[in-house]
Design a protein that fits this description.
Blueprint lengths: L3 H10 L2 H4 L2 H8 L2 H12 L2 H4 L3 E5 L5 H8 L4 E6 L3 H11 L6 E5 L11 E6 L11 H12 E8 L2 E9 L2 H9 L18 H9 L3 E2 L13 E6 L5 H5 E9 L4 E15 L4 E5 L12 E11 L4 E10 L5 E9 L5 E7 L4 E2 L3 H8 L9
Parallel strand pairs: 1-2, 1-4, 2-3, 4-5, 7-16
Antiparallel strand pairs: 6-8, 6-10, 7-12, 9-13, 10-11, 10-12, 13-14, 14-15
Helix pairs in contact: 4-6
Length: 362
Amino acid sequence: MKDVKDVLADAKTDFRQYYCMIRNQQNMLEDHVRTGGYQQGILQNAKDFKGKVVLDVGAGSGILSMFAAKAGARKVYAVEASDMALSARKLIKANGLEHIVTVVHGRLEEVDIPEKVDIIVSEPIGVLLVHERMLESYVAARDKFLRPGGLMFPGRSRISVAPFSDSTLYTEQQNKSAFWTSANYYGIDVTSLHSDAEKEQFCQPVVGMFDPNLLISSDPCHHPIDFATITPKELHNITIPFQCTVNKTALCHGLATWFDFSFVGTDAVVTIDTSPAAPVTHWQQCRLLLRDPIAVNASQTLSGTLHMVVNEFLSYDVTLEMSLDGTKITSKNEYQLQNQLYYYTPAATAAYQAYPTTPAAS
């Protein structure tokens, strides 16, 4: 029997238990921006798939494999580490595609397939694009199985960042540690832990939809990632520099982040966008709060870096440094990307409730 240490280690480093649950697959499938975007990215480029060999990395329910088969692929290898592979086989057979799609049950890094492939498809995307570190498996599949000149679907992506102001969110996070300001809690002074408690609250990346009017700059900065060329080493240590001109006088409470990714085929480029101005996705957006906000006037510029380094939790340790250009004013904070706070305002809740429950027209 495993001891507690081993169980905790497994929980920290293995998402397979989560992804083998049908309800969790359903949550992703019901994101019709995601699922419909993948369908259109593949079917609108059927010319690239016709008669080709395809590898689906982290196949889950097998839906991308079935899209590839319907686009005319000669053979599809659907690699899935979790026991969802068993359900994928069932779905594929029920749709009469088992003669094209072969499910390979195992970790991408450990399995073998009998031939090189022409196209790799995958949905390796997490919060802030990189959480769960599935992109590393996607890149490993490219290096191990893709023919020279083969295609990656998706082929490219961007992480976007812009400063934001949200006094409500900031105050709510600050108030969560107010308990530790008591000098006489049942006769005990707990104030010595207040700073540590506040630091703990502010190290949480805030995941959720937000009103794009909270952005205080209309010129977000973009960090491109080309899945055809990026190396695993580059994914382990990501630095995103930014400089944004502010268009309204406000307190800058931190940095908002989102991403997009594109399928670049012969006949079409299809992009899935997770920005606050785009249709809702299950990825939503991610905001990083500063403990010390920066007062800024319209037309001033904020500069800094967002630095992300992989950690043992299949995620990233994140450092944000921001400065008001032309001054000595700076602010810095650190976060653990896996330690996410899901945050919904009434307006965001209404938007989420309006989330489509039926697929877009094919």
